[in-house]
Amino acid sequence: MTQLSVNINKIATLRNARGGNNPNILQVALDAERFGAQGITVHPRPDERHIRYQDVHDLKPALSTEFNIEGYPDRRFLDLIKAVRPAQTTLVPDPPHVLTSNTGWDTIEHQSMLRDIVAELHSYGTRVSIFINPEPHYFEPAKACGADRVELYTGPYAEQFHQDSEAAVAPYVEVGLLAKSLDLGLNAGHDLDLHNLAFLKARIPHLLEVSIGHALICDALYFGLENTIQMYRRQLELDPIA
Ligand SMILES: CC(=O)[C@@H](O)[C@H](O)COP(=O)(O)O
Ligand SMILES: NCC(=O)COP(=O)(O)O
């Protein structure tokens, strides 16, 4: 079964637009869980333009599903993980002012740094996932770093999906099998939506988790949060597409 982790960064973006506490992040996260989210994802960035470090501290004791914290592992981020101890930490190589995540780790170049960081994070009792492009040469080094899982960066898949869905998914299927052979758990995320999700899941049935924020929150404007979360859950439960 593939778990749906709802990324609530966009809720924080909306809240921050007026400086108050509307919408209330904590309430939205609890409602998302009640509506069927199987995890909550946040990606605090150094400028705290959406989720703030304090939000992360406030969320942890309230949540009853898996908490996934994504981010670049600078000292402040590592100390946050040490304090909060989420179920999963996803390491993302974003520089400070990037608009949004746009690539995975070069696990060859950053092998020794990642190995040290994964070991430190394991000492805090968190599962560690590494955000990664669908390129086979990065997978054995990711395993050698000690990662429990990898999260496939699905931005390029989403971009190509409408032109040629088979070509778009092919590299992901290949590395999905490679991850399985290396005993690396498999997550996926970035720009997944109601159009491209079921196809990805059908081609990579052993996906353990997808984290979805931007499109899901946009859809919730039209369908409501409860309906939307249920719609995404159903995409993950459809029979395989021929
Ligand atoms: C790693 C990843 O793909 C997500 O965390 C995504 O980047 C969301 O971050 P933003 O909400 O800042 O765009
Ligand atoms: N890890 C991906 C994530 O949390 C959400 O990405 P997006 O759906 O906001 O593009």
- Second rung of CATH, namely the architecture: Alpha-Beta Barrel
Distinct compounds present: 1-deoxy-D-xylulose-5-phosphate, the ligand NCC(=O)COP(=O)(O)O
Q: Tell me what portion of residues adopts beta-strand conformation.
A: 15-25%
Class inferred from helices and paired strands: alpha/beta
Overall pLDDT level: 97
What's the number of helices?
Answer: 11
Summarize the structure in words.
It is an enzyme of class 2 (transferase). The chain is an alpha/beta fold and 242 residues long. It has one domain (3-235): TIM Barrel (Alpha-Beta Barrel). It is 44% helix and 16% strand. It is built from 11 helices and 8 strands. The protein has helices spanning 9-16, 25-35, 53-59, 75-84, 111-123, 139-144, 155-161, 165-181, 197-203, 214-223, 225-235, and strands at 3-7, 39-42, 66-71, 88-91, 127-132, 149-153, 185-189, 209-212. It has an 8-stranded parallel β-barrel with strand order 1-2-3-4-5-6-7-8, surrounded by 6 helices. The longest helix has 17 residues, at 165-181. Residues 7, 41, 70, 151, 189-192, 211-215 line the site of the ligand NCC(=O)COP(=O)(O)O.
